[in-house]
C-alpha cells in the first residue's frame, strides 16, 4: 500500500487516501466524496480595493488554509480600469483559483463557469497526484483507453464532491446600478448547482457593511434558494471597496471561526454604507 497526502480539505482535517498499485482497482474503489469538500471564495468586484488591507495578501493567506480564492471582474461597457482587472487576476493567482472578466449582464453565467473551473482544477490536482504515485505518469502520458477511464472518473467526482462557496460581493458606490443583476446572478448560481449529487452550499458576504463596517454577513451557508433570496433582497450599494476585509471574513466563516462576530446582520431598507461616510 502507498499513502499519499493531498491538499483538498477534508471535513476532519487534511486527509489521507489509501492507494494500491492498480489504477483500475483504485478507480473502482473510488474516493469517499462525503468526506471531501471544495472550499471556495468568489470575489466579485467592479473596482480596485481602496481600503482595509491588501486583498492579494489576504487571498494568499486563504490559500495556505486550503481555501481557494477565485475572482470575477465586472467590466464597464464604456471603459475598463486596467488596475482593477490586474488586481482580480492577482487575487486568483495567489489564491489558487481562476479569474474571469465579464459584463454585468453575464455575471450569473460567469459565476457558474468559475465554480466549475475551480472544481475541475481541484479534481485534476487530486487525481493527477494519484496517477503520479501509482503509474509515475501524467494524465497525458497514459494510454488513451486508460486516459478515457480516468476522465470519466473525474467527471463523476465533479458531480459528487461537496462544495462550500462563499461569494464576496462588492457593494461599493460604483455598483449602484448593477445590484439588481448581481443579486439575480447569485440565485442563478444556486440553481446551477442544484442538479449535482454532491452537497452544494452558498454563503454571501457584502462589502462594505453598514454603519462604517468593512463587511456584512448577508447569508451563512445554505442550500435553500428561497432563504438566500430573502437574505439578499435588501442588498444596496454605497461606500468604499474593502476587498481584503471581505476575503478575511469569508475565510473565518468557512473555517467556522468567530461565530459571535459572524452573527447574521439583518439587511433592511437602509444602504449598507451611507455615501456621506466616504
Automatic annotation (TrEMBL):
<feature type="domain" description="VWFA">
    <location>
        <begin position="167"/>
        <end position="266"/>
    </location>
</feature>
<dbReference type="InterPro" id="IPR036465">
    <property type="entry name" value="vWFA_dom_sf"/>
</dbReference>
<protein>
    <submittedName>
        <fullName>VWA domain-containing protein</fullName>
    </submittedName>
</protein>
<dbReference type="InterPro" id="IPR002035">
    <property type="entry name" value="VWF_A"/>
</dbReference>
<dbReference type="Pfam" id="PF13519">
    <property type="entry name" value="VWA_2"/>
</dbReference>
Amino acid at each position: 500500500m502507498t499513502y499519499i497526502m493531498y491538499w483538498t480539505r477534508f471535513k476532519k482535517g487534511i486527509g489521507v487516501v489509501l492507494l494500491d498499485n492498480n489504477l483500475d482497482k483504485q478507480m473502482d474503489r473510488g474516493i469517499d466524496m462525503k468526506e471531501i469538500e471544495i472550499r471556495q471564495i468568489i470575489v466579485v468586484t467592479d473596482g480596485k480595493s481602496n481600503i482595509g488591507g491588501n486583498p492579494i495578501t489576504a487571498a494568499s493567506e486563504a490559500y495556505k488554509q486550503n481555501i481557494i480564492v477565485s475572482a470575477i471582474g465586472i467590466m464597464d461597457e464604456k471603459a475598463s480600469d486596467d488596475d482593477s482587472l490586474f488586481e482580480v487576476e492577482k487575487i486568483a493567482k495567489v489564491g489558487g483559483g481562476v479569474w474571469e472578466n465579464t459584463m454585468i449582464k453575464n455575471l450569473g453565467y460567469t459565476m457558474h463557469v468559475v465554480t466549475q473551473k475551480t472544481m475541475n482544477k481541484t479534481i485534476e490536482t487530486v487525481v493527477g497526484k494519484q496517477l503520479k504515485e501509482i503509474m509515475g505518469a501524467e494524465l497525458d502520458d497514459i494510454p488513451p483507453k486508460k486516459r478515457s477511464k480516468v476522465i470519466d472518473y473525474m467527471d463523476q467526482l465533479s458531480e459528487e464532491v461537496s462544495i462550500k462557496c462563499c461569494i464576496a460581493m462588492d457593494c461599493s458606490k460604483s455598483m449602484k446600478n448593477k445590484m439588481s443583476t448581481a443579486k439575480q446572478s447569485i440565485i442563478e448560481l444556486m440553481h446551477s448547482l442544484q442538479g449535482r449529487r454532491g452537497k452544494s452550499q452558498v454563503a454571501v458576504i457584502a462589502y462594505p457593511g453598514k454603519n462604517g463596517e468593512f463587511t456584512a454577513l448577508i447569508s451563512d451557508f445554505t442550500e435553500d434558494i428561497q432563504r438566500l433570496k430573502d437574505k439578499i433582497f435588501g442588498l444596496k450599494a454605497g461606500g468604499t471597496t474593502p476587498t481584503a476585509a471581505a476575503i478575511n471574513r469569508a475565510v473565518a466563516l468557512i473555517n467556522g471561526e468567530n461565530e459571535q462576530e459572524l452573527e447574521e446582520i439583518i439587511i433592511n431598507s437602509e444602504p449598507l454604507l451611507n455615501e456621506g461616510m466616504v
